[in-house]
Amino acid sequence: MRSMSHQCILWLLLLASTACGVTQEALFRPSATDPAITQFNDRHYAAVDPAVTSRGRLVMFLPGTGATPFLYREFPKNAARLGFHALVLMYPNDSAINVLCQQFAPSDPDAAGNARLEVIDGTDRVGFLTVNGVNSIQNRLLKALQYLQATYPSQGWGQYYSGSSVLWQKLIVCGHSQGSGMAAILAKTRVTDRCIIFTGMDWWTGGTPPRPYNWMFTSPKTPVDRWYSFAHERDQFLDFVEMQAAAAALDVSRYGPHERVESSPAGYGSRHFLSTNLEPAPAQSSSYHGCPVVDTATPMQADGVTPVFKPVWDYLLLHETQPLVIECTPSSIRIIFSPGTLEQSDDLTHWTPQPAAASPLVVQRSALPIRSFFRLRTP
After folding, report:
1. Residue 59 · residue 170 · CB < 8 Å
2. Which of 93, 112, 312, 349 is most buried (CB neighbours < 10 A)?
3. 128 and 104 in contact (C-beta within 8 Å)?
4. Backbone angle region of 47, left / alpha / beta, with phi > 0 → left and psi within -120 to 50 → alpha
5. 62 φ, ψ to 5°?
């Protein structure tokens, strides 16, 4: 009886939001989408704004360790107002992957990658974690999309799957903390539309010196120009220096070092690794880890309604990367480029490949000819 009452209230809320032309939201349990799902049954959260022209892209967000989708509503609501469909997914996240790996497989540099893949597809890869296909992220996502399409057929959720397959190329995969690592390994192993990492990394302490886990260095199927990261410089759980090493491992720092958003001009220097040093919201005044995206820790603007990081969130979702950017100072130039071979010319006729050049490349003006041109030859 209680569940029927809740369902009626939910429908009334959805009808009211439709009439007002504002964001439509839905909370529903994974077990409602697949009765075989009996664990990690906190409610998924979905949002869409029917008043905005749809971009035909789904922002799929994965919470951090022990967290539930209800704690992350501001970011998906903002995405919905930009024309995206948004879905925050509940999944097996009760234990931190890094902690499990340090306890049970400290000498294995592949442990974190294998554990994350098991959570994603349910294939047994590690002995210290048990996630089957039913409870995997892959199954939960598919069943959630099928449920949303069947329950709200006019909202367009069916465009993100075909039969029993998720159309990953239409997904922007995002996550916070542990969820950011899940999003990242999804983007490593699948062609997605974009990957957004909020405060996350995998750090192997068994190495000498300690370093990111092996999976972070692998070539991504989602091109690196579609990867973005946003973290707090005073994160109380993750060392920011180590997060910078993780960004380098993921190749996100090829577009330049981290850019502090509150002191950056508009456009954030076209960086892919953004940071903040702002204080969290008073509700969670010590949660620097949650500040970039957790509702109760995200600071609000003076109106008390708009998140301070709304411009940052918009940038992470919408920024388009130029394949080659040259930044000039009086004494040097910085060349930022996507994967490919940088070429240099003095006359626009004869081009010399620079195969060893790594982005970002800093060249002193005194080392260049009077006229110097650069182009990028992509694979």
Report:
1. no
2. 112
3. yes
4. beta
5. -120, 125
Could you report the per-residue pLDDT of 59-83, keeping only the tens digit for each?
999 999 999 999 999 999 999 999 9
Separation CA 142–CA 240 (nearest Å): 35
Residue 257, preceding bond cis, omega within 30 degrees?
no
Spatial separation of the C-alpha atoms in residues 317 and 175, rounded to whole Å: 13
Residues 6 or more apart in contact with residue 328 via CB below 8 angstroms: 334
Query: Tokens in use for 351?
Result: 């081009």
Q: Does domain 20-321 sit in CATH 3.40.50.1820?
A: yes
Which residues of 132-206 form beta strands (DSSP E)?
A: 161-162, 165-166, 171-176, 194-198, 203-204
pTM for this prediction: 0.92
Q: Give the domain ranges of the chain.
A: 20-321, 325-377
How far is the CA of 273 from the CAs of 230, 260, 261, 282, in angstroms?
A: 6, 9, 10, 26
**Under 8 Å CB-to-CB from 311, ≥6 apart: which residues?**
261
